[in-house]
Specification:
Distance between the termini: 52 Å
Order of helices and strands: HHHHHHEEHEHEHHEHHEHHHHHH
Bound molecules: arginine
Radius of gyration: 31 Å
Strand content: under 5%
Largest sheet: 2 strands, antiparallel
Number of helices: 18
Number of strands: 6
Shape: elongated
Helix content: 55-70%
Amino acid sequence: MWGGRFNARPDEIMQAINVSIEVDKRLWQQDLAGSRAHAAMLAKQGIISFEDAKLIAGGLDTIETEIRDGVFPFRHEFEDIHMNVEARLRELIGTTAGRLHTARSRNDQVATDFRLWVRGAVDATIAELYDLQGALLERAEEHADTLMPGFTHLQPAQPVTFGHHLMAYVEMFGRDRTRFADARARMNENPLGSAALAGSPFPIDRFATSEALGFDRPMGNSLDGVSARDFALEAMSHAAICAGHLSRLAEEIVIWTTPQFGFVKLSDAFSTGSSIMPQKRNPDAAELVRAKTGRITGSLIALMTVMKGLPLAYSKDMQEDKPPVFECFDALDLALRAMAGMVRDLVAQPEKMRAAAGAGFSTATDLADWLVRTLNIPFRDAHHITGAAVKLAEGKGVDLAQLELSDLQNLEARITGDVYKVLTPEASAASRQSYGGTAPDQVRLQIQRWKELRS
Ligand code: ARG
């Protein structure tokens, strides 16, 4: 492509480090879209003739068919997707192909292709998050009343409902969704027409190509146009946060599916066995979702590091932007779909959850609150009395609700039999009626709110 100035062919190692076609062939649809928009604009602006534009468009159609049919010759000697397409176009339509690159550079071309790709990946991610939220909402509705222990420090804390627990993730994935939507709005500007770095002397119409490619407007600075990769970094930052959320839910599924917890079961469709231990059912999908966080966050760090300290405008360093971004969104796509699959697949075990919800003196706070509300005892003192009750129950090997009234009255004479009403996990959860609390009514309210938000 630049043979005019060169006498010799590149060294083999030079070619090996320079070639990117195996990676950036994934941009072929975006590359063809950019070229179509550019050629049409050039003709409309009188920069090339309509006949040439038609010839070019026909050649690009043939290339599309060839790629779809798997017969397009991707060649390393042409380095990247842009030059592979142009070289093939020349073979198909002759020297007119050379007019396509008028008022354009690979620098704005790749910036455009890549932005279009990331925009598409963000759209797909938003749709997957929406679907995952849908799966969580279905299960939350089904289990709005199902009791389970709520934990802090992974120690039994207070009873909650399984629906409430699942709805916590609906909130997280909702924030992820809006983060991606914000990033999409910010990235939706067109780099095409920045040319090599300084803009073009031809009377190009950047608003026309923006419209053709679904961008809101052209980017306002040509140097920035070819050098900016923060759109990819931003999308990957959101991916890393989202992967963090996925890994937390994955970890809970790993814990819940242990025989020790036994809160949920995954079907054969989402479990694996062991080649040596016949009794095993392993939650591999959850573990792999948990692990994908490493790749996703790693990709973000990789591109952050590539971009740091690059002078304006384009540097070839930026060719290293694609592998991490592809890896990041491939992993996130799989993780989101695997998680939605597991959430739909899992079967809760309400008896196990209910038993655990009542264990570990999980209604101790309810006893203390009762002392405050009914006997007007200051909370700190109520906390102390309750601590003594827990110690007593622990010594006797019983639950708080199984203590004799006389035992409780030895700790505080004014306690009445009424207290037992608050000592069940059902009563404990139902009493937490504050907005966003775990009372089943409140959980249903939030489920309703989310259904409306999503419609
Ligand atoms: N393959 C290159 C990349 O991905 C395209 C841009 C090359 N531009 C250049 N001036 N060498 O970044």
